Amino acid sequence: MLVINLLCILVFAFVGFAKPTPIKTCTVKHTKGADDSPAILDAFAKCQTNGNVVFSKGVTYNAWTPFAVFNLSNVKISLDGNVDLPNSITIVQQKINTTLNPPTTYATPWIYIQGDHVQLVGSTSKDGGRFNGYGQQWWDNGVRTLRPQLATFNVTNGYMTRIKVIKPVAWGWSIPGQNILIENHLVDAKPDNSTRDSTISFPFNTDGFNLSGQNITVNGYYGENGDDCISVVNGARNIVAKNGYCGFSSHGLSIGSLGRNGAVQTVANVLFDHWTMEGAVYGARFKSWTGGNGFAENVTWSNIRTINVSTPAFVTQNYYDQDKGPRPPNTSGTSTHITNLKFINFEGYINPNPTDGTCISNPCWNFVAGADATQSIILDLYNGTAKGLQFHNFQIHPYKKLSSSTTVICDPATLEPDDIKILGFKCVRGPYQPT
């Protein structure tokens, strides 16, 4: 039933475009060496309804000031050219600190798009449809203050295709809308002068997508980055993310984090299907904060290939800032409840390094006692709040070792007897033994 309901999202997305073809074209004017943000806003104002806003082929526009467009109706955005953010850390910080653009879960976006029946169509050329963030200099200098999220696509009945995000400062696209289909997305957040395991020029927090909306499908994704490729966060419902590749040092296909500072946060009905994770810290990940509230239910990760991934499947209900000290006591006695999380058809091998270049504290932010680069599954659960977890067909082995060397970390005291029966492997701190 879950899979059937989620696959229906594609139907919702296409039905949402049963509106007339845009009848007015507004080409954005470009002035060499000047800020094009006013011209961008002017084009959207003229084509706010039943319009086609065109960024011309072969032109790189200077979006040197954050901008927001609201109340679009039946608008196509033809990104045949490219859009540049300022190539200056100081200018970006100054302007993101003063913009009135609505903030997202993690930051304030440089670009905010809101409306109904909105299409964002990138160029068929690899050299067009680009958003250039000039993040390399931020990574080189270790700057992690006043960073913008690239953009928010807050639309109902939306479509996005062939968008290329090149060297974003940090987070990429926030998607809080509903009935949205995203296809063939590219993220290049791999530094030019660093490696997965280096703290030099590491691209911190370069998430590909933060999804918090409803009825959203991501079909076709290629990304190299230093954080989650897909992060499904509070409020999300009916999400499908499929046919993707995450490289460099992804932190996985993630639910959360949820429940920080005891917040009530919820996620339901999510499917991750057919992904290749290469060099990632995590393949599939769920994370909720110690003492959180709310729930996550009906989440499936299926057909996941892990190449050199530190932990293929990781679930924690005890997430916390490890660089700020030991785990705080759970004084509230609560946790974000998880129900029906399924992990099906995983194959590949484990990276001998349990972390990556984000490890700049002692202990590391993702330290797990006893982890030794042989674990295919790590469960860090809060007693009595995890129901219906299932793991099936895990063909994972440590680097240059046999499958028989694969281990798991699981505490049976955190699960009920009926849940241990359906778990799919023996819940121990020791060898992986499918059941």
Automatic annotation (TrEMBL):
EC number(s) per entry: 3.2.1.67
Residues of the signal peptide: 1-18
Keyword tRNA processing: no
SUPFAM superfamilies given in the database record: Pectin lyase-like
Subcellular compartments: Secreted
GO biological process: carbohydrate metabolic process; cell wall organization
GO cellular component, one term: extracellular region
Name of the protein described by the UniProt record: galacturonan 1,4-alpha-galacturonidase
Organism: Rickenella mellea
